[in-house]
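Course assignment 3, question 2. Fill in each field.
Student: A.L.
Task: Predict the tertiary structure for the chain below.
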Amino acid sequence: MSIKSFSIAILLVLLNIYTQAQVGIGTNSPNASAQLDVTSNTKGFLPPRMTSTQRDAITSPANGLVIFNTSENRLEVRSSSTWLALITLTGTETLTNKTLTTPVLSASSDGSVPPAGTVRYNTASGGILQYSNATSWNTLSPSVQKSVVTGYLNASTYANGFFGSPDMTEETDVNNNFASNTFTAPRTGYYTFSIIMSSNGLSTANTGGQWEVGITPTSGSTMISKFTMPATRDYYIASVTGTYTVRLTAGTSVNFYIVNTLGHAHTLAGANYNRFSIVEN
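Answer field:
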């Protein structure tokens, strides 16, 4: 073929590419939706390979630019002034300020247990979220275990004019939020405080005053709330029974608070007659 004929052939090919506005490699009929259609049953597409340093040296990279980062061993695409990983080939990926949408991280048939803290979506039983503790896979609970404390008041003696915290013994403390007569709210929300408090009988009758229980912050004696029911006095015995719900901010520490101004010292009856509970709503 003469140089002239060869030149004409090249021009015809270029004209055909230009008029089609498409390029096909390995095919004479590129897909109508593709500007570039690479077709092969035996070979793959190999993007430019470079290190992170070489990538960062690219001048004004356009959004959509794709490279293979040999430092991170992954495909990356340029988007909004940053490089995003398209896929990781290392088996793990750390996400910062990102959201996983339908993260099928492992199938139910995967019996291996990765490092602690790994999370996966297990397709078993219709789909469950699980986390690894490095020993086994554990199902994430759909709800938070809320605080529950129960116990009794110790058989202490409270002098006339006593204003202060009673001595208490816990029997149940689901989340370890109660210690040294003090309850610390694990979360901001509503908590219900309940108490039954009765004294032993006196040799003389009660004549007036107050026998009450309230809730007060550990940093002061001003009551957050006071049980709304009045104390009952059966001449020789004083008792309080009530329930009150208050809203506490996470980290707030509070105590039950006894008021005794009945004119006599009172010694509490046995544990069965002096019970308390704190329940997170």
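Instructor remarks: The longest strand covers residues 238-248. Helices lie at 3-20, 52-56.
Grade: pending
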